[in-house]
Design a protein that fits this description.
38% helix, Endonuclease, Chain A, 966 residues, 35 helices, eight-stranded mixed β-sheet, hydrolase activity, 5 domains, DNA binding, alpha/beta, Helicase_C-like, Helicase_ATP-bd, ATP binding
């Protein structure tokens, strides 16, 4: 088709001559960089190219394990599809890692060579795509940092096979490849020796250490997180407060931080309370590193009762007993630290807190949220010294990066692994084979696995460990019955460098969820359903501590038919909004959505299982809403408003409003003090504004409502200028009229639910001035109504602002955001909500929204089972309604639109994901594509339809394209 062929030239002209030239963007030249704020990585561009290529060529100076691990899943898929590639690396500076060569050599579809010259420093990637090639050249090597975090600059260009640039690239690569050494096991063995001899370790510690000073203390400098927390603690004490809670992800240095703060506080007597003796020993060592010989330190646990020491480290089991508490006076300790403070709701911890009266009490935990309804925050008067969760810790590089691989658990004799799978399925030979196969394939950073395997049952852990032993691996199973000595011995063996003594794997259920340090763990395997995002993060965290020589952690998660699979993206990405669209986008975006060099990878079936769990789960059960409401209330110390949920990154508060009609109605159902606070009219107004106006789909209503509530009136010109000044787009008079109509509920036609409104309006529009009515003023005089309505308005504006991008905004809609049919009617300025009649497509007011259910249900009418589908990211094949030809009124209007009819394309993947549609942009029909054809109806008779190809005004993002089409 001529127009499709012309598209390539339009892209080239737009890229190199004039950017305003109309083009699809599919072949436009692009600069590829790593930009954390924009969620963009060079890695994602290379993966996208690999996923759609017919053949590929890489020529890079450096290859590392981290770089290979970032692409491992993609290479595996290419091998399954028999897509061939050639990779050329170099021996320059002996930087390329032998272990990476070993692992890459196992791919039968990839031909691997190495240039042994000292001057080879190229970075180029070439991909064959039919008659076109995509070439990426620039600064990025095949290293994790170059692909994800470094400041890199790469140029991607598209060209035809006969072009000079592609011919030259193929020639250069061919010559270099031909002149390089074949990589085989013999070469790697020789290179390994050379690599080891020349390797210089530059260990990166979490804390910078210099010479020991005369006091015996090391000069240890706090990291950036600790400095900020120390400043906050000092401020809390300056305000006269005597307790605080530190929320800090596993491995981020909580114990060092507490030692630094104690150093600042200068206590005479200090008590450090933990739940296990080995943790007390580790804490004492940390404090000695900071204080040296300036303080005498000892234990008060087991057989050691060193109560005369300055700093005492004790277990909760010992210190909470009355006979031990009474050894000390209530004011004996100036400073008390309670580690793992999420346990502090237990009677033993409560007993300590009530008995002692320290000058300062510090609680520390990675997970303050409890599932048993206890309020930990109140123990510390809701004073949060600092909060750093997993994602932030990864972003500031104080944890080891990780590569997560979600793989499908085995189907055995047609039976899928499920929550209540039988023991023989969990420990079958086939499953053990699959676990070992994946453990060895995804491996670890140095090829020497030190693995933690989390199982669902103790019996499963023991049986799997036995199976691994029979296969030649060194493994052990630990449970709650294992003594501290057994646990410590197993940990020592896992971290050992002695091949005869070292363990490969420790199998366990949950005893290592918290309170244990095994920094050298480099592989975590999850063999159990995810029942809690908190536990998932705890188990992941076992391998995230940095260690000398540790490059990254490998995480292998076996995903079965688990109903709670939706918790996986919540845990990995830290998104606790329970917004289904957010979770889908996180899964689709994968590695782009995680900070640093970490990556998120799923095989196709595992990804579909997660999508299915998201679709099928009810995120609006009252018990879950109440739980999250209480958690936030405990945290902040008062009943939260919608904006508190937004500020603290908790559950999307619109879920509360959707459940009860308005957020106020939800709160009043569980807080007795709000009973009768609003009259019936106020309840009705708040309900309609909460669900029909402040849903963040069109911001103009919320912005105008905010002005009217706070200032009572505004001139129409001032309002238009305000929107332009804040958002950069100009709204029409028609839009302003539509906004006012919606604020008066004419659009949704529900005015009769407000009994006292009658013929009055809430918002008046006269002589170019928009103002609130007297009736509305009277309602706003109720402070509770005023407060909750304004909170709803702030939510609508804030939620819209979070997703707004002027580059993706087109006359009311944001490209690739989701909208209901009702939203679409409103944004297109239709007078009434016509969602019940606008199926397929509707032409009205010079607009034509087109709705496509991409994967259609099997039980729908045959005459509507159109083969609507993407041709590529820029073109979409679409069918008209049945019994149409090119002369039909609606088809003719679409064909001859001449830019007077707005054609907007909305697509959803299937009915399973709900009623909202992704806005794919406005489209134009390719004129020569109109074709009269037929489909069969339910009776097998031919029915006429018209097939059309639409050109999208912007190409679909790769992640969304894959999600919708696969």
């Amino acid at each position: 088709m001529a127009e499709l062929n012309d598209e390539f030239y339009n892209n080239i002209k737009a890229g190199f001559i004039e950017k305003s030239i109309d083009s699809s963007g599919e072949y436009i030249p692009r600069l590829l960089t790593n930009e954390r704020s924009a969620g963009v990585k060079v890695l994602s561009s290379i993966i996208a190219e690999l996923n759609s290529c017919e053949e590929f060529w890489f020529s890079v100076a450096f290859l590392t394990n981290g770089g290979l691990q970032s692409l491992l899943n993609t290479f595996k898929e290419l091998q399954n599809q028999k897509i061939k590639g050639k990779i050329l690396v170099s021996q320059y500076l002996n930087f390329t890692q032998p272990e990476a060569l070993k692992r890459l050599l196992k791919f039968k579809n990839i031909e691997l060579r190495i240039n042994t010259n000292d001057n080879f420093h190229s970075k180029g990637y070439l991909f064959k795509k039919g008659e076109y090639y995509n070439l990426i050249v620039g600064s990025s090597n095949l290293t994790a940092s170059a692909l994800s975090t470094n400041k890199e600059l790469n140029l991607k260009v598209s060209a035809k096979i006969d072009s000079y640039i592609i011919q030259k690239a193929l020639l250069e690569f061919g010559n270099d490849f031909k002149g390089s050494s074949i990589v085989d096991e013999a070469f790697i063995a020789r290179y390994q020796t050379e690599y080891e001899n020349g390797k210089k370790f530059q260990a990166e510690y979490l804390f910078k250490q210099i010479e020991i000073n005369p006091s015996g203390a090391r000069k240890i400098v706090p990291n950036e997180m600790q400095k900020e927390a120390l400043t906050n603690l000092k401020k809390i004490r300056s305000e006269g407060k005597n307790k605080a809670l530190l929320i800090s992800a596993t491995g981020t240095g909580k114990t060092f931080l507490s030692a630094f703060d104690a150093q600042e506080f200068k206590p005479n007597k200090l008590l450090f309370v933990v739940h296990r003796a080995n943790i007390a020993e580790a804490a004492l060592k940390t404090f000695k590193q900071v204080f040296g010989f300036n303080k005498e330190m000892g234990f008060y646990s087991g057989g050691r009762k060193e109560q005369d020491k300055d700093f005492i480290f004790s277990t909760i089991q010992t210190i909470s007993r009355t006979e031990h508490l009474e050894v000390f006076s209530p004011d004996h300790f100036d400073y008390i630290i309670i580690d793992e403070s999420h346990r502090a709701g237990a009677d033993s911890y409560q007993k300590i807190v009530k008995y002692f009266k320290p000058k300062f009490l510090l609680g520390m935990t990675a997970t303050p949220e409890r599932t048993d309804g206890l309020d930990i925050f109140s123990l510390y008067d809701h004073n949060i010294a600092y909060e750093i969760r997993l994602q932030k810790a990864l972003e500031i590089d104080i944890l080891s990066p990780f590569h997560y691989f979600g793989v499908t658990d085995l189907s055995i004799n047609g039976q899928q692994i499920e929550e209540k799978a039988e023991f023989n399925l969990l420990t079958s030979q086939e499953r053990v084979d699959r676990i070992i196969e994946n453990s060895l394939f995804y491996n670890c950073d140095d090829g020497n696995i030190r693995g933690l395997v989390f199982c669902s049952k103790v019996e499963e852990a023991k049986a799997l460990s036995e199976q691994f032993l029979k296969r030649g691996f060194k493994s052990i199973a630990l449970s709650g019955e294992s003594s501290d000595e057994q646990r410590n011995a197993a940990i020592d063996r896992l971290e050992s460098d002695d091949p005869a003594y070292k363990l490969d794997y420790i199998f366990t259920v949950d005893i290592f969820n918290e309170g244990i340090d095994i920094p050298r763990v480099n592989q975590v395997i999850m063999l159990r359903p995810t029942q809690s995002a908190i536990i998932f993060v705890q188990q992941l965290g076992r391998g995230l501590r940095k260690a000398e020589g540790k490059e990254y952690l490998t995480v292998i998660d076996f995903i079965g038919n688990y109903s709670n699979n939706f918790l996986i993206p919540i845990a990995l990405f830290g998104d606790t909004s329970y917004n289904k669209d957010n979770l889908r986008k996180l899964i689709a975006g994968g590695s782009n959505q995680i900070p640093g060099t970490s990556t998120i990878n799923f095989d196709k079936i595992a990804k579909e299982k997660i999508y299915a769990a998201i679709d099928q789960s009810n995120f609006s059960l009252k018990k879950d809403l109440v739980k999250d409401y209480d958690l936030l209330k405990y945290k902040i110390g008062y009943s939260p408003m919608m904006m508190d949920f937004m500020y603290h990154g908790s559950r999307d508060p619109i879920l509360f409003a959707e459940y009860s009609g308005s957020y106020f109605q939800f709160v009043s159902s569980i807080e007795s003090n709000l009973s009768g606070a609003l009259n019936l009219d106020q309840l009705a107004i708040l309900k309609l504004y909460s669900t029909e106006v402040n849903n963040a789909k069109r911001v103009e209503e919320s912005e105008l409502l905010h002005i009217l509530i706070t200032k009572e009136k505004v001139k129409i010109g001032e309002f238009i200028e305000l929107i332009y000044g804040k958002y950069g787009f100009v709204i029409s008079i028609e839009t302003v009229v539509s906004v006012i109509s919606n604020l008066n509920f004419y659009f949704i036609n529900k005015r009769n639910s407000i009994k006292g409104l009658g013929t009055n309006d809430l918002v008046n529009f006269e002589d170019g001035v928009i103002s609130i009515s007297e009736y509305f003023k009277i309602q706003l005089s109720n402070p509770t109504f005023h407060s909750y309505l304004l909170d709803s308005v702030y939510y609508g504006i804030t939620r819209f602002d979070q997703t707004f991008d002027l580059d993706k905004y087109l006359d009311g809609f944001l490209i690739h955001q989701k909208y209901s049919r009702k939203d679409i009617c409103r944004i297109l300025n239709w007078e009434k909500n016509e969602e019940s009649t606008m199926y397929g497509y509707s032409i009205k007011y010079n607009t034509c929204p087109i709705f496509v259910n991409y994967h259609k249900d099997e039980n729908i009418a045959a005459s509507t089972k159109f083969e609507d589908k993407f041709i590529n990211n820029s073109y979409f094949q679409w069918f008209s309604k049945p019994r149409r030809n090119i002369e039909s009124k609606d088809v003719s209007a679409i064909k001859n639109h001449n830019n007077e009819l707005r054609l907007s394309l909305f697509i959803k993947k299937s009915n399973g994901e709900g009623s909202d549609f992704y806005y794919m942009g406005d489209v134009k029909p390719v004129q020569e594509s109109f074709e009269e054809t037929t489909i069969l109806d339910d009776h097998g008779k031919s029915v006429s339809v018209v097939k059309v190809i639409f050109k999208l005004n912007q190409p679909v993002e790769d992640s969304l394209y894959d999600y919708l089409t696969k």
